[in-house]
Specification:
- It holds the Pfam family Fibrinogen_C.
- Keywords: Disulfide bond, Glycoprotein, Secreted.
- GO terms for molecular function: extracellular matrix structural constituent; protein-macromolecule adaptor activity.
- Its main location: secreted.
- The protein has helices spanning about 20-25, 75-80, 95-100, 180-185; strands spanning about 30-35, 45-50, 60-65, 80-85, 90, 105-115, 120-130, 140, 145, 150-155, 155-160, 215-225.
- With about 230 residues, the protein is of the alpha+beta class.
- Strands 1, 2, 3, 4, 5, 6, 7, 8, 9 and 12 form a 10-stranded antiparallel β-sheet that branches.
- A hairpin with a 2-residue loop joins strand 10 and strand 11 (about 155-160).
- It is globular, with a radius of gyration of 18 Å.
- The structure holds calcium ion.
- Calcium ion binds near residues 177 and 178.
């Protein structure tokens, strides 16, 4: 026979806040910095939550808006994250991205903003970042959106399944050099049919997104939702 279950504190069971969507469910309806624990065996860390877009619950992975923060960083810096979560530019950190995406089916949203205020977006199903042992390998599924698919543009231009590269750690498929050093940035670099380093959203000129009709791009966000 079924009976109602009451937890030890007499109320609803206390659940761990794994990401911003959990924070939203717990009543955190204001955008801002929150502490999350996606993996109980790892330390909690701070993330910026967007609680306004599409009913909220988005966890920010990256923000670029004015070039105020250099993305010319080492492997260790990309691993742990850098920049300013609260108001500035930042990279949340590859370890954090791994923990956030390891056990849950996630959607990646890329938002691009032009200098004239025009916004475009690209959305990918089944976004996942592998562990450091896997060199933070990127997985992305089906694309939808208005910005064009710059992550899986063609067979010779495909960031899916690529390892992460930084200016001093070459994991790209470009045999004659390091795309991270060339673009002064970390990314899941591939290499294209033109034998140049194909890239996504970061680089020494700020934000680049080859498929976008917005050129140049003023800023970008990477956001995650369950
Ligand atoms: Ca290379």
């Amino acid at each position: 026979m079924l009976s109602s279950v009451t937890s030890a504190d007499g109320g609803a069971a206390v659940t761990t806040v794994r990401d911003c969507s959990d924070q939203l469910l717990r009543g955190g309806q204001k955008s801002g910095v929150y502490l999350v624990t996606p993996d109980l065996r790892s330390r909690s860390f701070q993330v910026l939550c967007d609680m306004e877009l599409d009913a909220g619950g988005w966890t920010l992975l990256q923000r670029r808006q004015d070039g105020g923060v250099s993305f010319n960083r080492t492997w260790d810096e990309y691993r742990s994250g850098f920049g300013e979560l609260d108001g500035g530019e930042f990279w949340l950190g590859n370890n954090m991205m791994h923990l956030l995406t390891r056990d849950r089916d996630m959607v990646l949203l890329v938002e691009l903003e032009g200098f004239d205020g025009v916004m475009e977006y690209a959305e990918y199903e089944h976004f996942r970042v592998g562990s450091e042992r896997m060199r933070y390998r990127l997985t992305v599924g089906a694309y939808s959106g208005t910005a064009g698919d710059a992550l899986r543009f063609s067979k010779s231009y495909d960031h899916n399944n690529r390892a992460f590269t930084t200016p001093e750690r070459d994991n790209d498929r470009y045999p004659s050099g390091n795309c991270g050093a060339y673009y002064s940035s970390g990314w899941w670099f591939d290499w294209g049919a033109t034998r140049e380093c194909e890239m996504g959203y970061t680089g020494k000129r700020g934000v680049t997104y080859p498929q976008s009709i917005i050129q140049p791009i003023k800023g970008s966000h990477l956001k995650l939702s369950g």
